[in-house]
Each structure stands twice: as C-alpha cells, then as structure tokens.
Amino acid sequence: MRSNHSYRLFIAEKPSLARAIADVLPKPHQKGNGFIKASNGDIVSWCIGHLLEQATPEIYDPKYKKWVMSDLPIVPEKWILMPKDNTKKQFNILVDLINSADQIVHAGDPDREGQLLVDEVLNYCQLPPSKRKAIQRCLISDLNASAVEKSLQQLRNNQDFIPLSTSALARARADWLYGINMSRLCTIVGQKNGYRGVLSIGRVQTPILGLVVRRDLEIAQFVPKPFYEVFAVLQTKDNETFKAKWQPSEACAPYQDEEGRVLVKKLAENVCQRIKGKLGTIDKVSNKKKELAPPMPFNLSALQIEMARKNGLSAQDVLDICQSLYEKHKLITYPRSDCRFLPEDHLKQIMGVKSAIENNCPELQTAIEQASFTLRSKAWNNKKVEAHHAIIPTLRKTKMTNLSDNEKAVYQVIATQYLAQFYPAYKYAELQIDVDIQGGKFIAKANQMLDEGWKILFRNKNYQTDADDNETNGLLTKLVKKGETVQCVDTELLSKETQPPRAFTDATLLSAMTGIARFVKDPEIKKILRETDGLGTEATRAGIIELLFKRQFLTRQGKTIRSTDVGKNLILSLPDIMSMPDMTAHWELQLDEISKKEFSYQQFMHQLNLSLLELVNQLKNARLNIRS
After folding, report:
1. Residue 37, Cβ neighbours under 10 Å: how many?
2. Active site includes 124?
C-alpha cells in the first residue's frame, strides 16, 4: 500500500478517457475538482485537448502587434507555450498533481498529437530528470473496461515515444511559422492591392483550396467535344447475338483525343459501312474466374467518404458523431484512426462484438445469421497495425433509443463493414471475345456473377468494382471458340459528348485529400504521398475543410463545394508551391522520418526557415489581384 502522500497519476487526453481509466481502478472513488481518486490512492486527471498553445508573435516582441513586411519572417529563438485561457483552471490543477505525484502515467491518445499534448504539459513542469525518466506510457484505443484494463497491464516507458513527440512538435512549430508568416505576408500584399480582409494561409488548407479552385477552373473552361463509338452486332452459328466494340488502330490516332476517343464522325461511319453484312473471325476467347475480397473495416476518412455518399453528412458531422459514439456511448473503438487493419488479438473478441451488434442492430440479424464467423479476412494483421486499428464496434450493448438517427446510421455502417469480414469473396467470370472483321479489331466484354459473397450485405448501395464496369452483354449461353466465324448482322454508331470534370462534394474532396497522389505529376512526390496518406491527417481534415468555409474561400452550392471569387483569386495570385500538395508531401515524409529517428528536428526546421525566407522574398513585390 502506498502512503497517503504517494500516488500514481494517470493523465488522460480528455475527461471521457479519464472516466474509462478510473472505472477499472479500485472503488470507491472520490471525485475531486478536476480529478478522480481511487481507493488505492491512484489519481486520474485529464487535459481538455491541448491545454497549452503557441504564443502569438506579439508575446515574443510587442512590435509584432503591427503587421509590417520588414519584420518577416518571424522566427522565435526560444519557443514559448502559454496556458489556454478557457482551460487554465484544469491546467493549474494538473500542474499541481504532476508536481506532487509519485509516479506519472501518460495516457494521451495513441498518436502523434496525443503524445505531444500530454508531453508538453509534463515539459512545462520542468520535472527532475529521475522523475521524468520514470514516466510510463499507457496506450488506449478502446474505451471498454476489458481493453482499458489490458492497457494498464502493458505500460511502457514514455521515453520510447520521444521521437513521436518530437515529430508532433516539429509539425506544430512548422505550421505556426508557415501560417503566421505567410498569412501576414499575403494580407500585407493584399492590402497594398486594395483587399481589406485577412488572407489566411496554411500548409494544408491552401493546397486543399488549390484543388477546388483548379477543378472549378477546369469546369468553367471546359468545351464539350462530340466523339463516336462503333458497335458490331454479331451472330454466331447457333443464332446467338452479342455486341462487340470497335478498337481503333494506330492509323486512327490523328482522329482521336488523348483518351483514345474518335472525334471524326466520317471515320466511324466508314467503319460501319465496311463491316455490315461481313463475316468476322473469333481471334481470342478468354473466360477468367475472378474474386473480390470483402471491403476492409473503416478508418476515419473511408467512413467520412461513405457517410457523405450515403447520408450527405459532412466530414465534421461524421467526426462529431464518431466522437460521441466513442466517448459518450462507448459503442465504437478509437475513431480518429488512419488504419484499416485489426490486431490478431481481436480475433478473441469476435463473438462478443457479434453479440453486441445483434443487441444494438436488430436490422442486421439476417446479416449475422448468414455470416460465417470462422472465416478470416485479411483485416487481421499485426504487422499493419501501428498506434491505432480500424474502427469497429465494441463489446458494449445499449438501448439504441439513446442514440440520434445519425449516430444509429453511422454505427450500423461500421457494424455492417465489420460483418463483411465474415463473408466469402464475391466471385464472377470475366468473359472477353476478340473479333476480327475486315481487318478491324472488335471486343465484347461481359461479366457473370458466380457467387454474390459479401456483396449481399450491400445490395441496396452501389459498391462499384471492376466486376461491374461492363454492361452485361447478353452473355452467350454457348461459348464461341477461337477460329469460329460470326456474321455482322448490324452496326450501331453512338454519338456522345465529352463531359466536364465534376465539382467536388464532401465525399470526393475527402477522397481527393486521402488520394492526393493522383493530383501530382512528380513521380517522387507521388510515391511519398501514397505512403504518407495524403493531405492532412484523419483528425484534421474535417476541421480544415470547415475552416475554408469559415474564411469564405469555399461555399456550398447544393451538394457541391465551390471556390468563392476571393478563394479563386488568392490561389491564382500565389506561387504554385504554396497551393500544390508537394510541399506538404515533403513535410509529412520528414515528420514521419523524425518519428522513426531517421531525420532530425534541427534539419527539418533549418530547411523550413530557408524556404520561408525564399517565399517572403518572392512574394514581397507580388501582385495579389483580390478585391473585398
């Protein structure tokens, strides 16, 4: 037993996590002001998100109150963190507890930001080296009592996580340097040119705005072009018919666009005349059996994209609903996850999760009955799970009347995706017939479902796959063979028009942010972005999109997201490096390397300061054509 004055202090990231930790500590509990005390003397306290924030420029020097070009770039020599005004009371309580605690357990969320959030409070307290080295780390990604208890039995040394904390610190300081300096710079230049507002710049928000602006400009400048497709209607010796599409040869290249579409009607008409009534020869027949594994459990972005498509919810809506399902109802695991895999340890909980879904979602009863809980999808893989795992239902059972309609909808979608892991693959046959008619190549494609597998769960929603891409082509019941002849009994000439790209919606903008690599030309940067998971993080994407609306750079038109004139003009006035995702890609790569001890904080900040100086010099005399 500890004496009355020695105790272990758990510091959680939020009150909800603190309550979950306290729930597994010896009872009775004593509720204090900003903490909970267990009967064995252990105390649980909490942050409320970041309790400290970066000081504003004028704290470093009062002259920075005025926005003056010659002061830029502002680069603090010694960084200052200050307690946030609205959470100062909790901050002071926590500092007192830290200073008098015997042993400290860091229980921030298991990610870069969660690590820094508690570490910065501990650093602020300037603890003696021995006490600092003894701090332990508790990683909790599931608020259910059994999971929390298990985490408390697997404490690690907090020193192991210093690189993760350093990486988060580098990101926070870099974002401050970039945001403060570039926003001041663009605002000063904008004001010189007659703009009266503040022009907010950020290393993630500005490239996102750039994506929307470039898409809007493509739509505005789009000129539709007619193009033509030719189909041959072919009859076999058994009088079965099928359609095959003409594949233009290299000789037709001058009459095609870069996507291979034929732009000259006369050429298409000539093909129709040349083949009608003629015999064709079967060049090749391929009948491949294919399988499609079930979709993986959700990470936050995949869930946000799904709910935007299905229910029209914004990214912020989904994040808020998930936080409530996680913290308040304890029905789902940690929601700000960027991972779609599950730890193999979770295999033991399958029947418990199944039982919870059964209780919470009677609508999924049939889905549960048809599932085979001995099947194992590729979702369970320890090697692919880092700080978090995919978002899945917990073991908790509840009365669903306590939930809002949107909370029920999100829970059901997460539960359905989890159940899909216990369904067989979707199986189909892919048939392709290549036909030669008068020296021209024609291809017929069709798919035939062999086993619906997991797709039975998603019948009423469009789960587009390769298997769905082709029109069903009146599949031949008697397969033709290579070398057989077929008769071209008719032709079809389809006249179509090229379509402009579609304006972004919540779903497609999130999808673009997570798959940002496809908007980048540089192959090296493309590769980095594929590996670092796009623009922003799972936790920040929703907030950044909302910020762009708040700044009136973006606006909604029905379901679409469009840029405002101010947003457009800002992007068109900036150097490309500021509105393209390339710089963020480099940052993310280096931040990731810092967390793995492959790159140093000093190198990162040195490179950043050099590029800031370069941008300031480049933009000082720029012309921002923006009007209030």
Report:
1. 18
2. no
